[in-house]
Amino acid sequence: MKALHDLLEAMRLPNGAYVASPSSDYSYVWIRDIAYTVLPYLHSDCGRYEAAYHALLDLFRKYEWKIDIHTRQKPVLPYEYIHARYSVDLSEVPTPWGHAQNDSIGLFLWGVGEGVRHGKRILRDRRDHDILQKIVYYLGCLQYWQEADNGIWEENVEVHASSVGACVAGLKAVSLLVNVPQEWIQKGEETLRHLLPRESHTKETDLALLSLIYPYQVVNRATALRILGDVTQKLERTHGVIRYQQDRYYNEGSEAEWCFGFPWLGLCYAELGDRQKVEHYWAKTIGLLEANHGQMPELYIGGTNQPNGNNPLAWAVSMALLLHEHIQPASPTSQYAKKGTSA
Predict the structure, then answer these.
(1) Angle formed by the axes of helices 48-62 and 102-117, nearest 10°
(2) pLDDT band for position 339 (50/70/90)?
(3) Collapsing DSSP states into helix, strand and coil, what is residue 12?
(4) Are 208 and 158 in contact (CB under 8 A)?
(5) Is the C or the N end of the chain the one with fewer CB within 10 Å?
(6) What is the sign of the dihedral through the CA atoms of 43, 44, 48 and 51?
(7) What pLDDT, in 10s, does the model give residues 132-145?
(8) What 3-state class would DSSP assign to 178?
(9) One Pfam family from the UniProt entry (predicted)?
């Protein structure tokens, strides 16, 4: 899989961050995309995982004044939120955007906690530690457990289970590093119990719900199986997985088929210990790679059988690499087990 690592390296910036894709539309830095992109390096000593999180911490240092305001005063207008998308020099982009994306903040916290748990030097000094604490307080100020946000797809403003779950996972992950009021975690878990297996009021199921299984592991086995059943039966297609029914993005007759849906499903089944399903979705992932000359596009345009121009997508390449680890003879043992968690 050296070719896939080479694709990621080509999208890596000198500051340690990653562009989402070399395409002109996606030559930006997203907090979420970076955190998913560097997951293959969580267990390696190459330094890329730490460098990516140092870049994100430097970004938060630059906008610490904004975080300070919104640890006390809830943001209202989109630009007041911690931004989701930045230029390659880690500066805010002035174009109007749906920046209320709590899932990306929860994912950042989770990634920091996981990095530290694996022995990585994520927090360089006291200021990094203070930034981490302030981001926790930012989520508390938002009351994320009942806060409508744009969600993982940067669209409809409503309460999303995937966003709440990301925050629950993130707060748990950093609870040994900074002060995290346990009530904030409990409130998020309560929201998940009431909302799942739905993604939101308007969406019965959604590709984003897979994040609650992998990487976050914040649902119990029964809920995980229910989510996987809904996604595979209602959203899986020929070239990938649609995000949700009636999705209009890149829709030219039907919903766009997102390529990272196949490796993501494989990773979820790996968490559940289903080797047959892991191999099934690895075969589908290999099929996409072969059809695209070793690259992983963002999606196939609905109704056309053609990939869009965001090719390769760093996040999709990362998912393929992560699934490849699980089809190796010495693949990691699932830590999911059959434990009961939040929902």
Answers:
(1) 130
(2) very low
(3) strand
(4) no
(5) N
(6) positive
(7) 999 999 999 999 99
(8) coil
(9) Glyco_hydro_15
CA distance 36 to 160: 19
**Contact call for residues 14 and 334 (beta carbons, < 8 A):** no
Q: What is the pLDDT of residues 230-271, one digit of tens each?
A: 999 999 999 999 999 999 999 999 999 999 999 999 999 999
**27-60 pLDDT tens trace:** 899 999 999 999 999 999 999 999 999 999 999 9
Q: Two tokens at 141?
A: 């100020």
Contacts of 333 (CB under 8 A, 6+ apart): none
Distance CA 214, CA 166 (A): 11
Rounded to a whole number of angstroms, the CA Rg of the chain reads 19
Exposed/middle/buried for residue 297 (C-beta within 10 Å: 0-12, 13-18, 19+): buried
CB within 8 A of 78, min separation 6: which ones? 96, 97, 98, 99, 100
Token pair recorded at residue 130: 């203070």
Q: What whole-number distance in Å separates Cα of residue 108 and Cα of residue 119? A: 17
Say which residue the tokens 């849906």 belong to.
Answer: 261
Mean pLDDT of 73-84: 95
Domain ranges of the chain: 26-195, 207-343
DSSP conformation letters of 78-108: GGGSPPSEE-TTS-B--S------HHHHHHH
Cα–Cα distance between 40 and 315 in angstroms, integer? 11
List, in order, residues 6 or more apart from 226 with CB less than 8 Å away. Answer: 197
Residue whose entry in the numeric block shows the structure tokens 């929201």: 191
Residue type, 237: R
Q: 150 and 30 in contact (C-beta within 8 Å)?
A: no
